[in-house]
Amino acid sequence: MFFQVLIVILIIVVAILACVYFYQRRAVKQINDLMESEKKLADQKVDQQIKNVEELQLIGDAKKQFETIKNKYEKQVRPAITAFNKRAPQLLADSRTSKLLTINTQIRDLQADLAKLTTTLQQIQKDLQHLRQQQHTHKQAVEQIKNKYRQFHRQLNEKSFEYGDSEKQLNSRLNELEDQFAQFTDLTNKGDIEAAQEILSNLQSENDKFEQDLKKIPQLYKPIATEFPEQLSELKSGYETLVKQNFHFTEKNIDKQIEQLQSKLDQTIDQLNNLQLDVVEQSNKDLSDQIDYLYGVMQKEIDAKNEAVHLIEVMKDFTKHAQRQNDELGVELDRLSLNYTLTNHEQETVRELGEQIKAIIKQYRDDAEAVANKTAVYSQVLDRQKSNQKNLTEIEKSQEKLNDEVAKLQTDEQRARQMLQKYSTQIRTIHRQVEQLNLPGLPKDYLDYFFGVSDEIKKLADELNEYKINMDEITKQLIIVESDLDTLNDKTDILRDSAELTERFQQYANRFSDNEKIAAAAKKSQELFKQFNYTASLEAIATVLEEIEPGSYKRIEDTYYREIGKIKRIERKLGKES
User: Fold this and answer.
1) Rounded distance, CA 291 to CA 264, Å?
2) Cβ-based neighbour number of residue 542 at 10 Å
3) Would you list the DSSP string of 355-390?
4) Fewer beta carbons under 10 A from the terminal one: N or C of the chain?
5) How far, in Å, CA of 239 to CA of 249, rounded?
6) Among residues 231, 363, 250, which one has the least CA distance to residue 300?
7) What SS3 state is found at 56?
8) Is 566 within 8 Å of 487 (Cβ atoms)?
9) Residue 442 belongs to what H/E stretch?
C-alpha cells in the first residue's frame, strides 16, 4: 500500500516537473522570438536612414517634418528599444527561476510593446521614404526645367531662321520664364515651399505651352516666308500676262484681290511676330484657300479657251442646220395640213422649237462676237455653248421624231385605202355567198349586223374621201371594221352551216317517217326554217334524231364539213357534246 502511494506521488511529481519543463521551454521560446524580432528591427538601421535624410539638407516644411520624425525617434523609439533590451534578458533569466510561474503577463506586455515599437518604426521609415521621394521629385523637376531652358536657348540660336522675327518675342518670353524659375528657387531656399510649389505648377504649364509654340511656329512661318510670297508674285505676273492676252475672268478686280492678299500676308507676319498663333493659323488657311481660288479662276479660263473657240465654230454649223431643218419641217407640215388633220399639235411644236432655236442662235452670235472682239469670258462661253449644244441635240431628236410621225401620214393613207378596198371586196363576197344559199330569208339580227358593217365600210370610205383626212379617226375606224368583219364572217358561216345541215337532217329524217316523234320534230324544224331561224331549226330536228339514233348528228356533220373542205368552226350543244 505504501509503495502504491509512493508511486502515485512520484507520478504526480513527474507530471508537475514535465509541465514546468514545457512551460519553461515555451516561455523561453517566446522571449527568444521577441529578442529575434527586435534584432531584425535593429538590422533595418533606422539610425542610418535618419542620418541619410539629414544629409539631404532639407529646408522649409520638409525640414520641419524631418525634425518631428527625428524627435519622435529619439524620444520614443530609442528609449523603448533600450527598455526592451533590458527587460527581455531579465525575463529570460527569470524563466529559469521560481519566477517562471509569474512572468506570463510580463511576456504579453513585452509582446505588446514590441508590436507598438514595430508599428512606430514602420511609420518613421515610411515618412523618411516620403521625404526622400519628395526631395528627389523636387530635384528632378528643377533639373528638367533647367534642361528645358538650355534646350530652348539652343533651338532659338541654332534654328532662328525657322522663326523669323518671332524669335525676339520668344526670347523675351523665355527670359520671363527664367525669372519665374529664379523666383521659385529663391522661395525654395527660403523654405516657403507652398508658394514655391504654386509657382512651380504654373511654371511647368507655361513651359509646356512655350515648347508647343516652338514646335508650331516653324510650321506657321514656312508658308508665310516662302510659299505665299512666291505664289502672290506668280499670281500677279500671271494675271498681268493673261490680261495682255485678252483673257477675262468670272472674278472682278483680281489685281486688287491680290493686293489685298499681300496686305493680309503682311498683317499675318506681324501677328506671328506678336505670337498670335491661333490668329495666324486661321489667316494661313484663309490665304491658302484664297490663293488657290484665284489660281483656279485663272486656270479655268486658260483651260476653257481652246475648247470654247472650237465649240463656237461647231455651233455655227449646228445652229444653221437646226434652223434649216426646222424651217423645212414647218413647210412640210403646212403642206400636209392641207390634206390631213394634224391632231398632235405638230405645227405648234415646230413653232416652239423654232423659238428655242432663235434664242440659242442669239446667244451663239453674242458669244461668237465676244470671242471675235476678245471680250469673252471663255469659261462662261464654254458653259453656255455646251448647254446650247445639248439643247440643240434634244431639239433635233424632237424634229426627227416629229418628221417620222408626219412622214407616215401618206403611207398610212395608202395602207388605209388598200384596206378599204379589201373590206369592200370581203363584204361583196359575203353578200354573194349568202345569195347563193337560196334561203327563204335571213334572220333580222344577221341583216342588222350585215348592214351595220356595210355602213362602217362606207363611213371609212367617206372619211378617206374627205378634203382633209384625219388619220387618227381613220385608224380607229379600220380597227372597228376589221373586228366587225371577222364577226360577220363567223355569223355567215354559222348561218350557212345551220341551213345546209338542217336540210341534210330533214332528208335523213325521211327514213323514219313512221316515227311520230321524228315526224313532229321534222314539222317543227320546217316551221322554224320558214321563219328564218335556221339555228333553232337545226337543233329541233338534230336533237330528236340523236336520241333515236345516237351518233347520227356527228356523222352527218363530219360528212358535211369534209365535203365543203372546212374544219368545224363552232360546237353546238344538243343536250350533250356532239
Assistant:
1) 12
2) 27
3) HHHHHHHHHHHHHHHHHHTT---HHHHHHHHHHHHH
4) N
5) 10
6) 250
7) coil
8) no
9) none
Looking at the DSSP bridge assignments, the partners of residue 244 are none
Per DSSP, the three-state class of 59 is coil
Output the CA–CA distances (angstroms, integers) from residue 347 to 233, 331, 355, in the order listed.
61, 10, 13
CA R_g for the chain:
64
Q: Which of 94, 108, 210 is nearest to 152 (CA)?
A: 210
Show the cell assigned to 197. Answer: 510649389
pLDDT of residue 264: 92
Report yes or no: 345 and 405 within 8 Å, Cβ to Cβ: no
Owner of C-alpha cell 535593429: 42
SS3 469: strand
Angle, helices 193-222/104-158, rounded to nearest 10 degrees = 30
The residue to which cell 494675271 is assigned: 239
Q: Taking Cα atoms as reference points, which of 36, 15, 27 lies closest to residue 114?
A: 36
C-alpha cell at 477: 375606224
Contact between 361 and 324 (Cβ < 8 Å): no
Give the long-range contacts of residues 13-16, CB within 8 A, separation 24 or more.
Answer: none
HSE at residue 538, side-chain half, CA atoms within 13 A, is 20
Helix (H) or strand (E) holding 140: helix 104-158
Report the alpha-carbon distance of residue 186 to residue 383 in Å, rounded.
75
In this structure, what are the phi and psi dihedrals at residue 197, rounded to the nearest 5 degrees?
-65, -40
* The pLDDT of residue 322: 86
Please give the Cα distance from 291 to 304 (Å, whole number). Answer: 20
**In what helix (H) or strand (E) does residue 161 lie, and over which residues does it extend?**
none
DSSP assignment of 507-538, as one string? HHHGGGTT-HHHHHHHHHHHHHHHTT-HHHHH
Cα–Cα distance for residue pair 47/34, rounded to 1 Å: 21
- Tell me the C-alpha distance between 190 and 197, whole Å: 13
pLDDT value of position 107:
63
The whole-number mean pLDDT for each consecutive block of 10 residues of the chain, a chain of 578 residues, reads 62 51 53 58 58 57 65 63 62 55 61 68 69 64 72 75 80 80 73 69 82 85 89 91 90 91 91 88 92 92 90 87 83 67 71 88 89 90 90 86 73 81 89 88 89 87 76 82 89 89 87 84 88 88 86 86 64 36
Instruction: Tell which residue, 156, 189, 32, has the closest CA to residue 95.
Output: 32
Angle at 513 between CA 509 and CA 519, to 5 degrees: 70
Contact 502, 522 (CB under 8 A): no
* DSSP state letter for 573: B
* Spatial distance between the Cα atoms of 197 and 187, rounded to a whole number of angstroms: 9
Cα 341 from Cα 468, distance rounded (Å): 6
Neighbouring-strand partners of residue 577 = 573
